[in-house]
Design a protein that fits this description.
This protein is mainly beta and 186 residues long. Helix content is 9%, strand content 40%. Strands 1, 2, 3, 5, 6, 7, 9, 10, 11, 12 and 13 form an eleven-stranded antiparallel beta sheet that branches. 23% of the residues are buried. About 3% of the residues have low confidence.
Length: 186
């Protein structure tokens, strides 16, 4: 009897592959996901913003002072982080602000904002920064820094006023992300 039980046990152990077949890897968060590219879950998170160039009202000298004052012309740099397990490609950004005392500078018809870490993508776990480009050349702030948006703080603003810049991002597979960036006039 013991021999029969032992033989049955050995048979079950060595035939598990046939009894329980290898299952398809279908977790879209998994590095080994075998589905289609469009089904991979991609996560892009706002990382940081910084004044990369500032021209104070009545001044001809640019600075990188990370404050926003009444009358300033600001070039704002923005970074995002790819927290998914996959590269995110061809990220494009659009920005808006509903505040009456902030005037966003409009891009030229052929220009767009892209977020890159290397070439035209952000690798898994990496941070990408915003650049304005026409697809061939990049646009820089007067001091040579890359930036996402340029805006003017109207002279009718009041110290302490807060405003929000809405950032909308989309990649080559039409994944979208949205973030409100809150700023304050000092």
């Amino acid at each position: 009897m013991k021999t029969i039980i032992l033989l049955i046990s050995i048979l079950i152990i060595f035939s598990c592959e046939k009894v329980i077949p290898n299952l398809e890897r279908d977790n879209p968060y998994d590095n080994s996901f075998e589905g289609e590219e469009k089904d991979k879950i991609k996560v892009l998170e706002y990382d940081n913003h910084k004044v990369v160039c500032k021209l104070a009202q009545g001044s001809f000298i640019h600075s990188e002072e990370n404050t926003i004052n009444i009358g300033d012309r600001i070039n704002l740099g923005i970074t995002v982080k790819n927290t998914s397990n996959f590269n995110i490609n061809k990220i494009r950004g659009a920005f808006s602000c509903s505040s009456n005392f902030i005037q966003l500078e409009q891009l030229q018809d052929d220009e767009y904002v892209t977020f890159v870490e290397t070439s035209d993508s952000i690798s898994s776990g990496k941070i990408g920064w915003a650049e304005i480009t026409d697809g061939q050349y990049f646009k820089f702030a007067p001091n040579g820094n890359s930036y996402a948006i340029e805006f003017l703080v109207n002279s009718s603003a009041i110290i302490g006023d807060e405003f929000t810049i809405k950032m909308n991002l989309i990649d080559d597979l039409n994944n979208t992300w949205e973030k409100d960036i809150k700023l304050k006039i000092e």
